[in-house]
Design brief:
The complex is a heterodimer of chains A (319) and B (251).
Chain A: H1 2-23, H2 28-54, H3 62-78, H4 84-106, H5 111-131, H6 133-136, E1 149-150, E2 153-154, H7 158-180, H8 182-193, H9 195-200, H10 205-231, H11 242-254, H12 259-275, H13 280-297, H14 301-314
Antiparallel strand pairs in A: 1-2
Helix pairs in contact in A: 2-7, 2-10, 2-11, 2-12, 3-4, 3-5, 3-10, 4-10, 7-10, 11-12, 11-14, 12-14
Chain B: E1 4-13, E2 16-26, E3 31-35, H1 42-49, E4 57-62, E5 65-66, H2 72-78, E6 80-82, H3 95-104, H4 111-115, H5 119-138, H6 154-166, E7 172-176, H7 184-199, E8 203-207, H8 211-217, E9 220-225, E10 228-233, H9 235-240, H10 242-249
Helix pairs in contact in B: 3-5, 3-6, 5-6
The chains are: A mainly alpha (319), B alpha/beta (251).
Chain lengths: 319, 251
């Protein structure tokens, strides 16, 4: 039953480009574009939740790792003519190594200072991307980033990019699931919930914080690479600190620390407003209010609402 | 040589000497209580020897190995289990998961093996669940295995924390006030648990204020006052010691 539902869901998601073509042929390009962004945002939000939701460290450095991955791959692709199959791992590795280098000193800071320290790092990274004009082209942006090519597979069309995004969010979801459940998940959660007790359980808090931070950073770099190759242009504004805010909204809207919650949050934040054609000027206002409402009324996000609903469904007598 | 030893252990907080040149020797298989009035430095001493606080002077030995300054998670891995004065469990995890959390690191499996759930990791997980259920059963919590630890009563959480500390099968168990703020039935249960642990050959050092418990189960009692060791001996001898009476009741 469960497997059946999953395979139906999978088939549906894969078939989306054809469904869109059949249902709304005039708006196919626009809808697919929104869905590609949704998938990339979903993957990015999952990587962010590894740090925020599972080891409980409020990092604001995520835009920097996203940007370092994107710039590494974009510059290698344009200046050095590296093929995508080499530029993608390079983007992932560059972001992961940067997280490794930055993480050790950052985690000496606790709670608020950690948030401030990572915020500082994100700001510095954006300033470097803006002002190191000879290297990053600054506000002129990196242009003409080649489309992904993996052997005979060339990703050029919108449906192809959609499937690429879907694959990305699927793989990140699998990684997320593997890391946050069973033995590894328990170690992460132990560190998040009670560091002293975690040490008594011979869990090294810094090791697991770093593990989440570096994997989260590396995945963000990978998503950055895909983003740059899809859009074809990379500007320093993509590294803005506001990206952290967007990601936080997705996490809290959907449900911190939950795979389904974060994905629901990413869809609710990215796809729905576009599809509903919400006025862009009012969007952030509406989101601000929505976020307040969620934090007050449902602190565990939409995931909590879904869980309570399905529990009520299963036990109608109780509800 | 002793299983566990401190030599001249000293800890100062802003000029106050909380632990003052304390020498302890605990032989393998002993059941020893550390007592003293409030603020005499018992918990500070616990925190120094388990790697939670850096001591200012002196050395700590476990199995003849100098473990002074070794971080808490590594002390735990060497075979020293401990509980905390205020009940310490992971409230969002179930009782069973609380215990499993305490065992997994001893497996020393690589991150990748755990990520892909290698067959040996799965096999070990099954063994771990079996051991955890046995321990839960021994403290009378088997029926609550799936309940979130936060939903248990205070006394049950203390028993859970105790069982969790035993999960990795430590040689030395340090218990910080296991009987504090627990109802009389639960105190008896806790006493039985500590005795049973001792009978299984484990070495136990406990900090406790409840004198009935201390006098009833300890083989040896060490008394701290103002950070200094003022007496040491059998429960009966310590009870008669004028220095101890003075420390507790004043002149």
């Amino acid at each position: 039953m469960r497997a059946l539902r999953w395979s139906f869901g999978g088939v549906f998601l894969v078939a989306v480009p054809w469904i869109v073509a059949a249902v709304a042929p005039g708006q196919q390009r626009y809808i697919l574009h929104v869905l590609i962004f949704t998938a990339l945002y979903g993957a990015l939000a999952l990587s962010y939740d590894l740090v925020v939701g599972h080891v409980g460290s409020l990092s604001l450095a995520h835009p920097a790792f996203f940007g370092i991955g994107a710039y590494t791959a974009a510059l290698l692709g344009t200046e050095a003519r590296w093929p995508f199959a080499a530029a993608l791992p390079a983007g992932i590795a560059a972001a992961g190594l940067m997280a490794l280098a930055v993480g050790v000193p950052m985690f000496r800071l606790t709670e608020h200072s950690f948030a401030m320290g990572t915020l500082g790092f994100a700001l510095v990274t954006q300033i470097v991307a803006t002002n190191w004009v000879e290297f990053t082209r600054g506000p002129l942006c990196v242009t003409g980033i080649p489309k992904p090519e993996l052997g005979p597979l060339r990703i050029v069309t919108l449906p192809a990019f959609y499937w690429m995004g879907l694959t990305a969010v699927g793989l990140v979801g699998l990684l997320y699931h593997g890391l946050t459940t069973a033995r590894l998940g328990r170690a992460f959660h132990a560190v998040r919930d009670n560091e002293m007790l975690a040490s008594a359980a011979s869990i090294h808090p810094l090791k697991y914080r770093m593990l989440a931070f570096v994997i989260g950073g590396a995945v963000a770099g990978g998503v950055g690479t895909l983003f740059a190759s899809y859009v074809g242009v990379l500007c320093p504004t993509e590294l803005a600190v506001s990206l952290s805010v967007n990601l936080l909204v997705m996490l809290f809207l959907g449900g911190v620390g939950s795979l389904r919650g974060v994905v629901v949050g990413a869809v609710a934040f990215t796809a729905l407003p576009e599809i509903l054609r919400m006025a862009p000027t009012w969007r952030m206002v509406i989101y601000g209010l929505l976020l307040l409402l969620i934090v007050i009324r449902a602190p565990d996000g939409l995931e909590g609402v879904i869980r309570r609903r399905s529990a009520a469904w299963r036990q109608p007598s109780g509800g | 040589m002793a299983l566990f030893e401190t030599r001249g252990l000293t800890k100062r907080f802003l000029g106050v000497t909380a632990v003052d040149a304390v020498d302890l020797r605990i032989e393998a298989g002993e059941l020893v209580s550390l007592i003293g009035p409030n603020g005499s430095g018992k918990t500070t001493l616990f925190n120094c020897v388990t790697g939670y606080l850096a001591s200012d002077a002196g050395r700590v030995f476990f199995h003849d190995r100098d473990v002074t300054g070794v971080p808490a998670h590594r002390i735990a891995r060497l075979g020293v289990g401990r509980t905390f004065q205020l009940v310490s469990v992971f409230p969002r995890l179930s009782a069973l998961e609380n215990l499993l959390t305490f065992l997994q690191q001893h497996q020393e499996e690589g991150v990748l093996a755990r990520l892909v759930r290698a067959p040996r990791v799965r096999r070990y997980e099954a063994v771990a669940v079996e051991r955890a259920m046995m321990l839960l059963d021994s403290v009378g919590l088997a029926a609550r295995a799936a309940a979130p630890a936060g939903s248990l009563s205070y006394g049950q959480r203390k028993l859970l924390a105790f069982a969790a500390a035993l999960m990795p099968d430590p040689e030395l168990v340090l218990l910080d006030e296991p009987a504090a703020a627990v109802n009389p039935t639960m105190i008896n249960q806790m006493k039985e648990q500590i005795r049973a642990l001792h009978r299984r050959g484990k070495t136990v050092l406990l900090v406790e204020h409840n004198m009935d418990v201390v006098m009833d189960i300890s083989q040896r009692v060490i008394v701290l006052d103002h950070g200094q060791k003022i007496a040491e001996g059998s429960p009966a001898a310590v009870r008669r010691d004028p220095k101890v009476i003075e420390a507790y009741f004043g002149r």
